[in-house]
């Protein structure tokens, strides 16, 4: 069993979500080109990015600690078009106008890589936005919350009030799907809050109590 992993992400949201699972981890940077390939599906894209980010983090890890690396990626998709992180607030306004009054999909991929092995899961959610007035979009962009967020919004922030319904995974929309992440942790035998009760060192040792 692994007692610790690397989190190949600069995202404070992913750090917070992984903390919720009670995993001990060291946060490291990743360095991976996020340009989609021609005709790549959203599911293939987030899988490729989740694994690519984890693998690209290897040079940032301490060579003496050989641990699994977790990578993740989130993309917003509206009518088949990928909406990534906006380059500025003008692009954010453009994306929010498109999302207003429509249902879009949020795909989040999460991977755990160790040596040659990589395992990956994808979560897909449908998110419906109410109609947003131009004043609301302007006021929201003034907060700068859209920057650094796929689709130019953060459901965990004031933009949570734009969302009339979701069908899927709240943690997946925020950036790290907890259900899928726990599956990977268990497959890779990484210690977390629930597994610690079953970990071998807590079981009675051979030869007595
Ligand atoms: C849709 C949505 C996205 N997001 C964020 C999650 C991700 O951080 C970001 C999508 O960008 P990503 O490229 O997935 O991740 P990142 O560049 O922020 O971090 P890293 O590669 O270092 O792990 O959008 C929210 O915080 N809330 C939301 O509601």
Automatic annotation (TrEMBL):
Q: Which cofactor does it need?
A: a divalent metal cation
EC no. given is: 3.6.1.9
Task: Give the positions of the site Important for substrate specificity.
Answer: 13, 74, 156
The enzyme's main class, written as a single word, is hydrolase
Location in the cell: Cytoplasm
Question: Is the Aminoacyl-tRNA synthetase keyword given for this protein?
Answer: no
One Pfam family cited in the UniProt record for this chain: Maf
Query: Does the keyword Repressor feature in the UniProt annotation?
Result: no
Catalyses which reaction(s): UTP + H2O = UMP + diphosphate + H(+); dTTP + H2O = dTMP + diphosphate + H(+)
> What GO molecular-function term can you cite, just one?
hydrolase activity
Q: What keyword terms does UniProt attach to this protein?
A: Cytoplasm, Hydrolase, Nucleotide metabolism
Active-site residue list: 73 (proton acceptor)
Chain's role: Nucleoside triphosphate pyrophosphatase that hydrolyzes dTTP and UTP. May have a dual role in cell division arrest and in preventing the incorporation of modified nucleotides into cellular nucleic acids.
Q: Which NCBIfam families match?
A: maf (TIGR00172)
Family, as annotated: Belongs to the Maf family. YhdE subfamily.
Name the record gives this protein = dTTP/UTP pyrophosphatase
Which species is this record about?
Kangiella aquimarina
